[in-house]
Amino acid sequence: MNRKSTLLILAAFSLFVSACGGSTAAPTVSPTNTPVATESAPPTARAVDISQLIVENYPRVDGSTSAYPLQMTLACQILDVPCIWLEGDLFSTTRSIIPDPEFEGSSDQVEKIYNIWHSGTHGSYMNLIEGNADIIIVARPPSEDELQAAEQADLHLEFKPIALDAFVFVLNEKNPIDTITLDNIRAVYTGEITNWLKLGGSFAEIHTYQRNRNSGSQELMERLVMRGAPMIESPDMILESMMGPIHAISDDPLGIGYSVYFYAAFIFPHERVKMIAVDGVRPTSENIADRSYPLTTEVYAVIRGDAPRDSAARLLLDWLQTTEGQAAIAKSGYVPISH
Question: Do β-strands 135-138 and 61-63 pair in parallel, antiparallel, or remain unpaired?
């Protein structure tokens, strides 16, 4: 087997593992009053020397499923390995960024990049708290459960926004509705609105797909949309992976679900699923960049507060705030925070 074939097999396996990486629901806890996480200063134009970030001391990374291509883009640039988008195949229906199989440089660099995988938002937070990761890139700030776990570990979390994304709602392409108000979305998920007719569609029951507790998407749904309003209890409609809502809605003209823009547009675009406008504004890179889309969100890099000043994790965190780091983020397709 030649080197190119071996690399492609490694890529497919890496995508399969990442796509299957989910999060385990944590027990319910009460909110903590102790500040165990802080958001640091905004991006800076100062330069940060990352020449010491080589294979031997590259930080242990983790993150949200949606941020996996971003993590791979950063590693490819820092370790000086060209990367490409890999389309879905037999092993994985999702797209991702991988080292270019034609690259003939150091196999150690390529192997290091292929060893990167993401265990999901909640899983990556727990890995960071438990000391199994040095830096994570995630779709949301820490949840109450994660803050509680950090407090119990006597650990402070330090996080910085590094990119912009958006929380989006998806429908089957056969559904005639192309826009919905935020108030109506909330009414659908509290059970106040149960029929598409009230939203301008056909006379049919709305199938409300949800995500599992502590997943990045579910935390965003509760924080940005529900805002304390109780969601309807539909245990049979709770899906455990980011693929779940898109898979389900691709075969369900009466379904509604949610995801994040980067995942739905770049990682798992589906010809039978569409993202709809919220309050009349469509989720596009341009509308995310100027924050006119009402559910624009931030993507965070998070480290342990006890990371040494000269640690690889803190060095990478600082670099992501620089002009060079923001340019690398833009290469992945994300909107840089400094846009």
Answer: parallel
Where exactly are the structural domains of the chain? 3-163+299-336, 166-289
- Beta-bridged to residue 210, according to DSSP, are 238
For residue 339, the tally of other CB atoms under 10 A from its CB is 17
Closest CA to 290 of 323, 330, 334, 339: 339
Give the model confidence (pLDDT) of 67-114 as tens digits.
999 999 999 999 999 999 998 765 567 898 999 999 988 899 999 999
CA distance 297 to 139: 8
pLDDT in tens, 277-320: 999 999 999 999 999 999 999 999 999 999 999 999 999 999 99
Torsion (CA) 269, 218, 137, 299 in degrees, nearest 10 = 80
Q: CA-to-CA distance for 306 and 53, rounded, in angstroms?
A: 19
- The whole-model pTM stands at 0.85
In the chain, where does DSSP find H-type helix? Answer: 3-20, 68-78, 107-114, 121-129, 144-152, 182-190, 216-220, 243-250, 261-262, 285-289, 312-319, 323-331
Structure-block tokens of residue 61:
């990374």
Beta bridge partners of 260: 167
User: What is the C-alpha to C-alpha distance for residues 254 and 251, in angstroms, rounded to an integer?
Assistant: 9
Class of the CATH domain delimited by 166-289: alpha beta
Is residue 129 within 8 A of residue 205, CB to CB? The reply is no
> Which helix (H) or strand (E) segment is 260 a member of?
strand 255-260
Q: 3-163+299-336: what CATH class? A: alpha beta
